[in-house]
Amino acid sequence: MYEFYAGCDTHKEKHFISIINAKGQAQESFEILNSPKGWTNSLNKFKKYPKILIGIENTANYARKFSKYLLQNNQKLKEVNPVFTGKKEKPIPVPTKQIRLIRL
Fold first, then answer.
1. Count of other CB atoms within 10 angstroms of residue 59
2. If you write DSSP's letter for every residue of the chain in order, what string do you get?
3. What is the pLDDT of residues 35-53, one digit of tens each?
4. pTM score of the predicted model
């Protein structure tokens, strides 16, 4: 079982990431550049959370290199189909799309 979950909404130039704990409480949200420097910044943040699972929406392959980098650094990933993150549902109070990624 994981203690923390991260959801990553990927875009061509930036990725948006939110982290929650197993109870669904928001821990932090941040954005990174889709570049080696941005990936390193996110890895440093992920390392603060023990037993974290990272859900990544791989729209148009924007997350391909980022995912490879995280796997090479022993992070646990789950690819999330973008079709499922666009579902209509009741509002969620904190970073909605990233949280939907995590909940899948």
1. 15
2. --SEEEEEEE-SSEEEEEEEETT--EEEEEEEESSHHHHHHHHHHHTTSSSEEEEEE-GGGTTHHHHHHHHHTT-EEEEE-HHHHT---S--SS-HHHHHHHH-
3. 999 999 999 999 999 999 9
4. 0.81
pLDDT in tens, 56-100: 988 888 999 999 999 999 999 999 887 766 654 554 455 556 556
Burial of residue 75 (number of CB atoms within 10 Å: 0-12, 13-18, 19+): middle
Identify the structural domains of the chain with CATH numbers, from first to last: 4-103 (3.30.420.10)
What is the pLDDT, as a whole number, of residue 82?
75
| Rounded distance between C-alpha atoms, residue 57 and residue 34, angstroms | 13
